[in-house]
Amino acid sequence: MLVIGIAGGTGSGKTTVVNKIINSFPDGEVAVLQQDAYYKDLSYMPPEERTKINFDEPDAIEWTLLEKHLKELRSGHAVEMPTYSYITCTRQPETIRIEPRDVIIIEGILVLTEAEMRDHMDVKVFVDADPDDRLIRVIARDCIERGRTPKMVIDRYQAILKPMHLQYIEPAKRFADLIIPQGGSNTVAIGLLTDYIESRLKRKSEE
Is residue 205 scored above 80 in pLDDT? Predict the structure, then answer.
């Protein structure tokens, strides 16, 4: 099993990179553990208090559960990945069954910030993008998927996203084995990454 960590700022194109990797391999060969699925459940808090939580710092993630699931996959056991609602800021009753695969991708803005998680990764990737491009993508996504207005997104970007990016996410770039500039549009870098994954898998199968 090959474990790949893919990090980068909000709106950098991580999901596009992940999808291009998945589409480069046969169905069922790649599984994805999404960091966002492991946000701590805030259902015990009043709704108005949940909106004040900082979701862009490491403490917002239940790392112990994510690490447990990764270890179980490495041991050949399927796991039930949580699902999370960004609208209510609560963990949902539904789960997604993840089966052990030849390639496991751990994707999220903070996955390279935690030393324990990095220790499980065979390849660490940072998806980089211009801050203006990231902001445009975040506005489009949050307005459509998360019911926010452009002003709400911009205010949150200035108050939380940008400071947290500079404090936690950008410094984690130094841990990356590969940096992909221009996000998901960098077909050359993504091609090099998929070629490397193929070579690693081939080498493991021959051992």
Answer: no
SS3 category, 57:
coil
What tens digit of pLDDT does each residue of 65-88 get?
Answer: 999 999 999 999 999 999 998 788
CB atoms within 10 A of CB 158: 11
CB proximity list for 134: less than 8 A, separation 6 or greater = 9, 10, 11, 12
This prediction's pTM: 0.88
**Contact indicator for 35, 111 with CB cutoff of 8 Å:** yes
φ/ψ of residue 117, rounded to 5: -70, -40
Which residues make Cβ contacts (< 8 Å) with residue 191, sequence separation at least 6? none
The angle subtended at Cα 188 by Cα 134 and Cα 142, nearest 5°, is 20
